[in-house]
């Protein structure tokens, strides 16, 4: 039976592609890709000449019928993104859902993934969670960050024009901790810089970035106290109540609302 293959492609160095991925791309009838011009560079490198069709966030929904029709007609289809694994901050998951609904076959050809590589490069200890790009709207970004735990490593993608603002936002929300800023993975200028989040600011940033935010350091003796006692320690030291709540939340790597609720309840 025909199927859809979600194929990982290199995130930088074009040699980072598996033999299986090349064989799959050579065997399918149609390749869906975000940018046909970008993908043609990779396909030409490995002498893969197949019909290409654009598949991006602006036409994703209306392309679902087309893809399912191809599979029902016995055609194999490959889905690739500009770099890395489809469905990870890229189109694809709606197609997976549709294939499941219609009982059509699909599989994944594994390979390069930027957030996994960045986590390994950071040297931080698992568990970790991938959060994608920070949301653009402040209200959406707040909900996104509130859903994350300060007690595990969190990994974010960041565009070059947002990197310093994103680092500042993470400090304001999570407080200080170690952060790895990973740039240009698998490319000539790959780098990993480890900062204290409060000091993290890049001069003239260039390239593509992954932010790996370490879990809260358990070195503050106040973290052994009950959260209320932690807040009261700061209040007794002269802090205003809300400032004490904010500082306690930063110490513990949690959202300030978690601490505030203890006093409301």
Task: Describe the protein's architecture and organization.
The protein is an alpha/beta fold. The protein has three domains: 3-112, Cobalt-precorrin-4 Transmethylase, domain 1, CATH 3.40.1010; 115-213, Methyltransferase, Cobalt-precorrin-4 Transmethylase, Domain 2; 221-264, no CATH class. The protein is built from ten helices and ten strands. It has helices at residues 19-27, 36-45, 60-72, 93-102, 114-122, 138-146, 163-174, 227-236, 241-252, 256-264; strands spanning 3-7, 30-33, 52-54, 77-79, 105-109, 128-133, 153-158, 178-183, 191-196, 209-213. The termini are far apart. The relative contact order is 0.12. The mean pLDDT is 91.
Topology, element by element:
Elements: E1 3-7, H1 19-27, E2 30-33, H2 36-45, E3 52-54, H3 60-72, E4 77-79, H4 93-102, E5 105-109, H5 114-122, E6 128-133, H6 138-146, E7 153-158, H7 163-174, E8 178-183, E9 191-196, E10 209-213, H8 227-236, H9 241-252, H10 256-264
Parallel strand pairs: 1-4, 1-5, 2-3, 2-4, 6-7
Antiparallel strand pairs: 7-10, 8-9, 8-10
Helix pairs in contact: 3-4, 8-9, 9-10
Helix proportion of residues, in percent? 25-40%
Uncertain regions: pLDDT < 50 for 5+ in a row?
A: none
CATH homologous superfamily assignment of the largest domain: Tetrapyrrole methylase, N-terminal domain
Briefly note the CATH topology name of the largest domain. Cobalt-precorrin-4 Transmethylase, domain 1
Instruction: List the helices and strands in order.
Output: EHEHEHEHEHEHEHEEEHHH
Structural class: alpha/beta
């Amino acid at each position: 039976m025909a199927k859809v293959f979600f194929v990982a492609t290199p995130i930088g160095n074009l040699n980072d592609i598996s033999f299986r991925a090349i064989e799959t791309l050579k065997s399918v009838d149609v390749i869906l890709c975000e940018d046909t011009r970008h993908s043609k560079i990779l396909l030409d490198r490995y002498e893969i000449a197949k019909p290409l069709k654009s598949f991006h966030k602006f036409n994703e929904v209306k392309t679902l019928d087309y893809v399912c029709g191809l599979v029902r007609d016995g055609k194999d289809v490959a889905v690739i993104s500009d770099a890395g694994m489809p469905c990870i901050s890229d189109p694809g998951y709606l197609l997976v859902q549709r294939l499941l609904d219609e009982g059509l076959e699909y599989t994944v050809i594994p390979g390069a993934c930027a957030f996994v590589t960045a986590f390994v490069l950071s040297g931080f200890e698992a568990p970790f969670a991938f959060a994608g790009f920070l949301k653009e709207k402040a209200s959406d970004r707040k909900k996104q960050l509130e859903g994350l735990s300060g007690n595990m490593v969190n990994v974010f993608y960041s565009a070059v024009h947002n990197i310093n603002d994103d680092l500042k936002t993470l400090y304001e929300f999570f407080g200080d901790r170690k952060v790895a800023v990973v740039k240009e993975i698998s490319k000539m200028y790959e780098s990993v810089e480890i900062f204290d989040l409060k000091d993290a600011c890049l001069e003239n940033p260039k390239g593509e970035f992954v932010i790996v935010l370490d879990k809260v350091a358990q070195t503050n003796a106040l973290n052994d106290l009950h959260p209320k006692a932690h807040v009261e320690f700061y209040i007794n030291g002269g802090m205003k109540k809300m400032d004490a709540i904010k500082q306690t939340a930063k110490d513990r790597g949690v959202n300030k609302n978690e601490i505030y609720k203890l006093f409301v309840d």
